[in-house]
Q: What sequence folds into this?
């Protein structure tokens, strides 16, 4: 009678480990033929261990109430520039660490808020919003025609802009 009790538990363990193995393998294999699936997490690959908000409204609410700045990344899954920036962003240890101090949102669609497209709706673009819900038009990248665009080679500039967004916060609040 004792042995019977062990069987269900053992089967459950096998099922769980298979499910985990399947997920782990999924990340590496790029299936180009498949339609883009919905992302597994809200991070969409920009930092899986970071906490990402689901909507712009939620992000604004959290920024205001936590008194943290908000960083919004506009990108598209099928845009090579977005993909390239995402890769360096996700692999940049210091950026990932610093990002914990922000309310984070990445969007694959435009919001109706025109303030998020001060100079057009291009991707990738990164904007900072302070807890007073003001878009920081003063924190820009290095391209005059696309002020909030960053290339993978601009990753250190993006890092210092994140530092700037946090520093301005301390002096102004």
A:
């Amino acid at each position: 009678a004792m042995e019977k009790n062990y069987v269900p538990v053992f089967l459950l363990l096998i099922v769980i480990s298979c499910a985990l193995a399947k997920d782990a393998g999924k990340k590496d294999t790029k299936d180009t033929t498949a339609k883009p699936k919905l992302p597994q997490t809200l991070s969409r690959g920009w930092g899986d261990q970071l906490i990402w908000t689901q909507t712009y409204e939620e992000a604004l609410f959290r920024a205001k109430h936590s008194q943290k700045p908000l960083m919004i990344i506009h990108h598209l899954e099928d845009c090579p520039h977005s993909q390239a920036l995402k890769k360096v962003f996700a692999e940049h240890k210091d950026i990932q660490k610093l990002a914990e101090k922000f309310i984070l949102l990445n969007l694959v669609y435009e919001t109706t808020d025109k303030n998020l497209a001060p100079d057009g709706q291009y991707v990738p673009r990164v904007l900072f919003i302070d807890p007073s819900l003001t878009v920081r038009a003063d924190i820009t990248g290095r391209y005059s025609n696309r002020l909030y665009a960053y290339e993978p080679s601009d990753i250190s500039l993006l890092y210092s802009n994140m530092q700037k967004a946090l520093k301005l916060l301390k002096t102004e609040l």
Summary: Residues 17-32 have pLDDT under 50 and may be disordered.
